[in-house]
Amino acid sequence: MAGWFQAIKRDYADLQRFEAEIDHLREWCVNSSGIAPQISVHLLWLQAYPLHHRGKDSDVLRLIERALIAYDELGVKDVLFRGHLLNDLGATQNLLKNFEAGAAAIHEALKIRREVLGEEHVDTAMSLYNTAIGFVRDKDYHGAVTVLEKAYAVWNKTYSPDDVYALMAQCALAEVYFQLKRTEALEFAETTLRQAKNKFGEKHPLTAAAYHQLGHVLYAAGDKRSVECYSTALALRRELLGEENFFTIDSIKSTVGNLCAKGFHSKAEAFLKDYLAKLPEAHPDYKDLFNRKRTIYDGVVRPGFRTRPMRR
Predict the structure, then answer these.
(1) What b/e sequence results for 87-110 when a residue is b if at least 16 CB atoms lie within 10 Å of its CB, and e otherwise?
(2) pTM metric for this prediction
(3) Which of these, 130, 200, 140, lies nearest to 172 by C-alpha position?
(4) d(CA 300, CA 184)
(5) What would you measure as the largest C-alpha separation in the chain, in angstroms?
(6) Calpha distance 226→134 (Å, rounded)
(7) H helix or E strand, kind and range, residue 229
(8) Model pLDDT, residue 301
(9) In this predicted model, what pLDDT tens digit does every residue of 11-37 receive, in sequence order?
(10) What distance in Å separates the CA atoms of residue 104 and residue 90, rounded to the nearest whole number?
(11) DSSP category for residue 71
(12) Whose CA is closest to 236, among 3, 12, 83?
């Protein structure tokens, strides 16, 4: 059973199949805890994936932390599995804006995966991909390109060009190429969107990410198509990931910036006011959004102004 869930955990497109059987996963997890502790911890970890795909990052964090505690308490001896747990812990911490904790976990996971699996393995590539957020936060886009291109090369060699991982890396590369003013940015953004729509259809988080990224590149070029791209990305993320998800808020910020750039400051203010009324004040983005609302008429808010996380 674990192998079946393991095989379909990567992609949102398989989420309905996963969720249809999750009660069996939970039951097996409980029943195996006394006789097969390593299996029970593995099954606990797998339960985090539907929550991840649904954008419930705080719930994912709690499950992974429980799995790490159980790993230690039950005396599990599998260093590679610990690397998997740490990778997902770090990626989730990043999505929750706990960047220092995220970086520490991801770098430990990368070390383990390199030692056990080698540099050319798909899981090592995932940890490399996840380190890119640190480079982006430090505005070291050359560093980000280096790790992303390595991950992209491994995934392109292992999977098809339209695999979810290859397209994730392609979308992230469009962002850093854009930051470096490289001409490939537009080509990568347009290609990612076309491939994501062909492979997954409109209602997929990666399609939403590709719309958002293309909007970012088009906006900088003064292309009016950016408005439709930003709007589509926001609508998809609200539907697929929920109102409080990191990526949804990424789109909220770009929408506000786009309205301000076009001189629609009152619309931007009303839009943010309405959104903030629904967002819990304890949310990690609340203060930033509140400050953006206050500075709307100072011309401070800009589309695409964000720290971009990397999907797991």
Answers:
(1) bbbbbbbbbbebbeebbebbbbbb
(2) 0.86
(3) 130
(4) 29
(5) 65
(6) 27
(7) helix 225-241
(8) 45
(9) 888 989 999 999 989 998 888 877 787
(10) 7
(11) H
(12) 12
User: Which tokens hold the place of 110?
Assistant: 């990368």
pLDDT at 249: 93
Task: Choose among 92, 105, 93, 102: nearest CA to 53.
Answer: 92
**Per-state percent for the chain, helix, strand, coil, to nearest 5:** 75, 0, 25
pLDDT of residue 124: 97
28-37's contacts with Cβ under 8 Å and 24+ in sequence apart are 28/1, 33/74, 37/70, 37/74, 37/75, 37/76
Q: What radius of gyration do the chain's Cα atoms show? A: 20
Q: Which residues of 246-280 are buried (b: 16+ CB within 10 A; e: fewer)?
A: bbbbbbbbbbbbbbbbeeebeebbebbeebbeebe
DSSP element (H, E) containing 192 = helix 184-200
| Spatial distance between the Cα atoms of 300 and 295, rounded to a whole number of angstroms | 6
pLDDT for position 286? 92
Residue with tokens 């960047």: 99
Question: What is the predicted pLDDT for the residue at 1?
Answer: 63
- What the block records as the tokens of 261 is 């750039």
In angstroms, the CA 280 to CA 54 distance is 19
| Two structure tokens written together for 179 | 């930051």
* Residues 7, 10, 11: CA angle, nearest 5 degrees: 110
What is the Cα–Cα distance from 142 to 287, expressed in whole angstroms? 30
Spans of the chain below 70 pLDDT: 1, 298-312
